[in-house]
Design a protein that fits this description.
The longest helix is centred in the first third of the chain and has 11 residues, at 19-29. Helix content is 38%, strand content 19%. By secondary structure, it is an alpha+beta fold. 30% of the residues are buried. Bound molecules: inosine-5'-diphosphate (IDP) and magnesium ion (MG).
Amino acid sequence: MRQKTLVLLKPDAVNRRLVGEIISRFERKGLKIVAMKMLWLTRDRAEKHYEVHRGKPFYESLIDYITSAPIIAMVLEGERAIEVVRRMMGKTNGVEAEPGTIRGDFAMSIQNNLVHGSDSEESAAREIPIFFSDEEILEYRLVDEIWI
Ligand code: IDP
Ligand code: MG
């Protein structure tokens, strides 16, 4: 089942110069980048993206954090891409995330955890259009696709 998922490299990933490292992991795994941009989230857009967390104790701090510096937004595509990305990210809390995962290798915080990935097909369908128009999501073939 080929899926698309929204991935964000959060402000700490950009500030800690981990953008290349994180994108490289997704590429080497075999996921395909079908959309990508750098942007600075407005509070409005951040609140839309994180609307399921509105009212939680960490919500205001989360919005401050995600709007504090530029981020990278991507759509990644591949076989069961949603689950693959979530497993590569590791647990929300960097302290608890398994070594070998992005958060497990590079994060020590529950908030500043470097990366976002949609958690279900419904979330991906809701989140992708917050960042990308249909025309920005590209359809193309990679030469090594038959080997992946
Ligand atoms: P996820 O990113 O692993 O799916 P969610 O529970 O959806 O985690 O939370 C969204 C984001 O909110 C997290 O990635 C993290 O940045 C932040 N967050 C989650 N729980 C806490 C918390 O208890 N304290 C502070 N920030 C949190
Ligand atoms: Mg989540």
